[in-house]
Amino acid sequence: MALTHEDLQAISQLLEPMRTDIQGLRTDVQGLKDDMETVKADVQGLRSDMETVKADVQDLRSDMETMKQKVTALELTLENVTNRNISILAENHSSLVEKLDGVLNTKNENMIRDVKVSVLTAKVEKLERDVADLKGKTA
Predict the structure, then answer these.
(1) Residue 83, Cα to own-chain centre: how many angstroms?
(2) What is the DSSP string of 39-99?
(3) pTM of the full structure
(4) Confidence grade of residue 60 (pLDDT, cut at 50, 70, 90)
């Protein structure tokens, strides 16, 4: 049974919508492929970004470790050097305050002596005048 030209045309007309559907599917599949390539590129970009983030986090960890070491060294310096020096200064300050008190007491004593000497000088001058007056009256 051989197919006639009309049979083949009828089959061709029946297959035409299928061809159109297949062409649409091909276009859709190509669109999916393009989208998949875009997704792959995005994922690759994310991977690259993640590697950068990992490196940055590692740098931050390293920096934090360095900072911890510096803080520890600073704490040790404060504890061993600065606090000791402050104690020494406080002891010396106490000694200086005691010396200053001694000097001030001596100065006060000298001022009292100066006042007494001044009073005595005034009395001696008065007595000298009185003696001179007495000598002038008796002579």
Answers:
(1) 22
(2) HHHHHHHHHHHHHHHHHHHHHHHHHHHHHHHHHHHHHHHIIIIIHHHHHHHHHHHHHHHHH
(3) 0.45
(4) very high
